[in-house]
Structures are given as structure tokens and as C-alpha cells.
Amino acid sequence: MSTVRKEQQLAEYLLNLPLCIFCNEFHKSENCEEVRSTVDRIEILLIKELCLVCMSHHTSFYCPRREMICSLCNKMNHHVAICYLKDKPAKDGN
Ligand SMILES: [Zn+2]
Ligand SMILES: [Zn+2]
Ligand SMILES: [Zn+2]
């Protein structure tokens, strides 16, 4: 067993820890209880200059995943965490 491999695993483990982009706590950003409003979340992403599609450090324009489809509304160009559907109460129809 090499130490390099262990360090690599640790790095991967840390990378995969769900650190919330909005409040910096350990949970998935889309499940954030601190910042729930979509508008507030978008504002934070804009202030931090993060991509609205994948929340990485680039603008949405250059996003390699900008054609990723939101699993909530099935539309493109935004992350599930900032989907406008989150703000709406679940309703039947349409
Ligand atoms: Zn949070
Ligand atoms: Zn992106
Ligand atoms: Zn959506």
C-alpha cells in the first residue's frame, strides 16, 4: 500500500464532502436550510462569481456543463439548488 494512494483517497474524500456553497456548512448546497430563497442563493453565486449551472469557478457562459438539465423543472442553464420551482409550493396540474 502506498502513502500516495492514501493521500489521494483523502483528497478525494475531502472533495466529496458536501460543503454548502451558501453558508459553508457541511451539507449539500441544494439542501441548505440557512439560505432557502432562490433569489438569495443566486445573489451569493453572483457575488462569489460562481457558475449558475454547476456552481464552479467560472461564468455560466463558459460552463462545460451548461447543457445540463435541471432535475426539478427539466430546463437548462441553472443548478437544481437555484431552481425557481423550489420557491413554489407543490401543486397539481400544468
Ligand atoms: Zn447551507
Ligand atoms: Zn459551470
Ligand atoms: Zn430548474
Keywords:
94 residues, binds zinc ion, 2 helices, 0% strand, mainly alpha
3D architecture notes:
- The chain has 94 residues and is mostly helical.
- The chain has one domain.
- It has helices at residues 3-16, 38-47.
- The longest helix is centred in the N-terminal third of the chain and has 14 residues, at 3-16.
- It is globular.
- It binds zinc ion (3 copies).
- This is TAZ-type domain-containing protein.
- It comes from Caenorhabditis tropicalis.
Ligand roster: zinc ion
State mean pLDDT (0 to 100 scale): 87
Structural class: mainly alpha
Percentage of residues in strands: under 5%
List strands and helices in order, with pairings.
Layout: H1 3-16, H2 38-47
Bound molecules: zinc ion (3 copies).
A few lines on this structure:
The protein is mostly helical. It has helices spanning 3-16, 38-47. The structure holds zinc ion (ZN) (3 copies).
